[in-house]
Structures are given as C-alpha cells and as structure tokens.
Design brief:
Distance between the termini: 95 Å
Number of helices: 14
CATH class of the largest domain: Mainly Alpha
Shape: elongated
Number of strands: 8
Radius of gyration: 29 Å
Largest sheet: 3 strands, antiparallel
Helix content: 40-55%
Structural class: mainly alpha
CATH architecture of the largest domain: Orthogonal Bundle
C-alpha cells in the first residue's frame, strides 16, 4: 500500500510543451488518495513563485472530496443543514431568496474550491450596477445582507474542509447606509396620544407601545399570563410573526436579552388591569373577529399609518415608536443601562450607539452643568 502523502507535499516538472507544472497535496479522499492543487507557468522561476504562494495559502489544509462540489450545491446543503435549524422561518425564506436570485445566477456552477475573492467582489459590483434576477440595481444595504448569507455559508465550508479560506473575507463591502430615525418630539407625541384616544379598539395597543418601546412582534405576542398586576410588571417571552400567505407563528424573542421582565408605569398598569377585566381572550390584544387568535403585526402597522395620517404627523415606521420611547426616556433621565434592559438590548453599548443623537445632547448639557458649577466655585473663591 502506497504511503499517504502529507498535505503540502509537492512535485515540479517540465512538460513536453515546454511549460512548467507543479502540484501540491491539499487533502485526501476517503480511500487515502491525495487531492492535488495544480499550477503552471512559462518559466521555472514564475512557477516557483506560484508554488511558494500556494504552499503558504494551503498551509495546514486538509480538503475532502466534497471540495469539488459547486457553490450552488454547497449553498443548498448549508441552507438545509445549517441555516434551517438555526433561524426563524421568515429569515430562512430571505436567505433562500438571496441565494436563488442574487448568488446562484452568477456563481452556482463554479466549484466551491475555485471561488475567489475577485469572483465575490465582481458579484457585488454587478448586483449594485445591474441588479438581480428580480430586476433593478440593489442598494448597498441589500448587498451587505447578501454578503452576510454568503459569508456564513463559506465560513462553514472552511470548517468542513471544503475550502482553505473564506474568499468573502477579502472583499470591500458597499458603504452601510442607515435609515434615518423619525422621532416624535414633545408636541408631536402629545398629538399622537390625543389621536389614539379617538381609536377605542387600538388605544391600549399604542399606549402600551409608547410607554414600553416593545418590538412590534413582542407587543402582538403578549398574553395575560405575562402581566402581573400586583407587581406592576410585564414579562416578554415570545415574538409573533406573520406567515407568508397568511396566518402567524410564535417564536422566541429576538435575542436572549429580549426575554425580560419590565416594570410598568402606574398609568399603564391601571390601563391593563381595566382591560383584563373585560377580556375574553388569552391574548392581550386579540384579533377582533377571531379573539382566539392574536392581532397580526401587519395590522398594527397599517393602523398606525392611518392614525399618523389623520393626525397630520410624519410618516414613520412602527419601529420609530420604539425609538420615540427610548429617546424620551433618555432625555427624561433614564440611564442607558436601565433603558437597555427595558428594550431587550444585548449590550448597553448598542443602546448608546443607537441613540447617539440623544447622548450627544445629554453630554452637552452635562458639560454646561459642570461648567456652571465650576464658574460658581471660582467666583466663590
């Protein structure tokens, strides 16, 4: 039986056509046979330069026979074996769409071991310039989302010895463009609160939102078992999601920190206590036509749009109500760590980064207070 050749072992020869050729061992088949990486050049000097670069690149590599599969084949395996058990159905649907419409049309037939950083960079440029199978150039934000999917899949390919390194590590991503937040100021917030008073069915829904800053799916997924009127607390345990084609499903909170218990303002405790007395459903905010089911997140969004338009308030996303709550909480003196816990953020630093527009104003006010104090101190001396 032939001795198993170690990875990195190589050979150089001059072919009959005068070109120089080299190969190095980069892995092994199940039967022990070597898997080679080949290269060639016009001169021995050029070949040796290529060879040394390849030896560095494949240092420690132990590829398997599966490294010959195409990127399209691997992405399908990754979606089924890795993504599907780990992400929400809606997220998985998005991943599949990105693969089918944005990645596969350009790279699916290429062997995964031959996909380069240049291939990935070219794909991203093409998507921004020409668009995808769905049509129209894609924004930098969308390309970054596609990159996130491809990068995850290629990272797993590295771990499974299908490729030596992740080629998407070496690409330049489009600039991240953040959607501006729309924050209701004091006067606008007062108008919003007046507007929801006129909406008997939705008033409590939006009052709770504006006094807690819950995510839309968290708000719709609340049950009466989550409310402790004696302690004045609300426990967030689940998130409600719309299903494509209709219906809903209940999932976990967005993060581990999303599962939390928050202290409610007295007015909110009173509102929920009165609401609970009249409730006929296990859901805090049931579907008015089918009280055995919760109200859908999309319904809350649509209703908010109507309320805003009727009140002459700025057009905004539902998530901006959460931002409005957080902004007013910070400016009212709630510290960032406490607010982070209320919002269900994993880290306080994320809260501070998200609301830099507020903390900047707070820092300025703090400097004015300290400055005033020091001036008084100096005068007193």
């Amino acid at each position: 039986m032939a001795k198993r050749r170690p990875s990195g072992d190589g050979m150089v020869r001059k072919r009959d056509d005068g070109r120089w050729e080299a190969r190095i061992v980069v892995g092994h088949k199940e039967n022990g046979d070597s898997i080679f990486h080949y290269m060639s050049a016009k001169t021995q000097k050029d070949l040796m330069e290529k060879l040394h670069r390849s030896i560095d690149e494949y240092d420690g590599a132990e590829l398997t026979e599966e490294s010959r599969m195409t990127l399209g084949e691997w992405l399908e395996i990754w979606l089924e074996e890795c993504a599907a058990p780990a992400v929400r159905p809606k997220t998985l649907t998005g991943y599949r769409r990105y693969v089918a419409n944005n990645i596969n049309p350009y790279l699916s037939d290429k062997q995964i071991c031959k996909v380069t950083a240049a291939d990935v960079q070219s794909l991203y440029r093409k998507l921004q310039r020409e668009g995808s199978a769905e049509g129209g150039p894609l924004s930098g934000t969308t390309v970054r989302r596609i990159h996130n999917v491809l990068h995850q899949a290629l990272d797993v390919a590295v771990n499974r010895h299908l490729i030596v390194k992740n080629p998407s590590n070496d690409v330049t991503l489009p600039k991240k463009v953040t959607t501006p937040k729309t924050i209701l100021n004091d006067e606008q917030l007062e108008r919003f609160m007046e507007a929801i008073k006129e909406d008997v069915h939705w008033h409590d829904f939006f009052y709770l939102e504006i006094t807690t800053g819950l995510r839309r799916g968290e708000l719709c997924g609340l049950m009466w078992t989550d409310f402790d009127e004696k302690k004045g607390t609300l426990t967030i345990r689940r998130t409600l999601h719309n299903k494509e084609g209709g219906g809903y499903y209940v999932g976990d909170t967005k993060t581990g920190a999303g599962r939390r218990t928050i202290k409610l303002p007295p007015s909110t405790v009173q509102l929920l206590t009165e609401r609970k007395k009249k409730s006929i459903s296990q859901w805090m905010f049931p579907n008015p036509l089918h009280p055995e089911d919760p109200v859908m997140p999309n319904s809350g969004y649509a209703r908010m749009k109507k309320i805003l338009a009727k009140a002459g308030l700025p057009n905004m996303r539902f998530h901006d109500l959460r931002h409005t709550f957080a902004t007013h909480a910070l400016t009212s003196g709630v510290d960032a760590k406490t607010l982070s816990g209320i919002l269900g953020h994993t880290k306080t630093s994320f809260t501070l980064d998200t609301y830099t527009h507020v903390t900047g104003d707070m820092h300025r006010r703090a400097s004015e207070i300290v400055g005033g104090f020091m001036e008084e101190f100096m005068v007193a001396r």
